[in-house]
Amino acid sequence: MMDDFETRIKQKLKAQDDNGQYRSLKLLPGNLLDFTSNDYLGLARSPELGRLIQARFNSIGITQNGSGGSRLLSGNTLLAEQTEQFLGSVFRAQSVLLFNSGYLANLGVLSSLPGRGDTLLYDELAHASIKDGARMSLASRYSFRHNDLNDLETKLKKSRGIPYIAVESVYSMDGDECPLQELVGLSYKYNAVVILDEAHSTGIHGEAGGGLAVSLGLETQIPLRILTFGKAMGIHGACTACSKDIRDYLINFSRPFIYTTALPAHSLVAIASSFAYLHRNEALRSKLKQKIELFRHHYKQETGSGSPIQPILVQGNENARAAAVQLQSKGFDVRPVLSPTVREGTERLRICIHAFNEDSGIASLAAALNQLHSD
Q1: From CA 50, how far away is CA 42, in angstroms rounded?
Q2: Which of 42, 85, 114, 366 is most solvent-facing, going by the fewest CB within 10 Å?
Q3: What is the pLDDT of residues 145-159, one digit of tens each?
Q4: How confident is the model at residue 2 (pLDDT cuts 50, 70, 90)?
Q5: What pTM was estimated for this model as a whole?
Q6: Is 279 among the residues known to form the active site?
Q7: 169 part of the active site
Q8: Domains in the chain, start-ordered, CATH in brackets?
């Protein structure tokens, strides 16, 4: 049996390699200019924020390294509940429920809320965690064309039970925004429940970094938002912003919440500290916008994105890999995104602009990309 097992593993890996889709972990030199991480505001690398987190952690006098269990067992603490109350004010939500990551939050929400007999509709370019959560749901599930509200409405007309719509504020591969105002209007027309993943808008959009829904004044019209702290906030964890009833429902029925060890105290302190730091350093968000505009000024192609995520299409896995290696050789940390992560024919370099990128580095990267197109 073990021979059959090992043979199957080798065959699957070989097929992956033959298809140009083999993945491996890589360490690049540490002196490359970062144009690949999701640390849009530079908080993950901020020594000042690191000191603030450690000072706050030391001040609360908690000596336990881990939480010791799930929230429903030994993992619930006053600090966890205080953190949720604080986040409720940031995201203008009646209630908040912490999750260990945005991926787990999407799994937890989408696997438990849409039920048998319901219809779950999700954008075709939604993150893998949304699609995986949809697969775990007992609802009928269908994708709709990216940001195409006509296609969504066609499917809403055919939906059964309670219709759910799962979308992202800012899409992680193309960097474009959901037409949220219009989508919310459509959801009201068909009594649909919107589930909004704000992973790439948390910290960047909205007052206090509350996300795109907050910036548009739509927070009360969207039943459930998923906010992630591992991107612009520079730390770890996530939460749902919702009503008290939805929070109670998730506590009772969301298996990724029920059966996961709770975040440790240090992570909870980091969450509150990061938002406090952003509040005192609001200029970082304006600086990020300036850096994005600078890149778009120097780069001669239109990416269609006004976000930190700037997709540079390079068709074919091997071509995208070669382009990334060429840019790395010039001192830029740029990575390829290959199929099947994106559709075949839409392989790309995923450029991420940061508030800490120097103007000269941005101009040099844009020049290198322009040269790449002309070769």
Answers
A1: 12
A2: 85
A3: 999 999 999 999 999
A4: low
A5: 0.95
A6: no
A7: no
A8: 20-45+282-374 (3.90.1150.10), 67-263 (3.40.640.10)
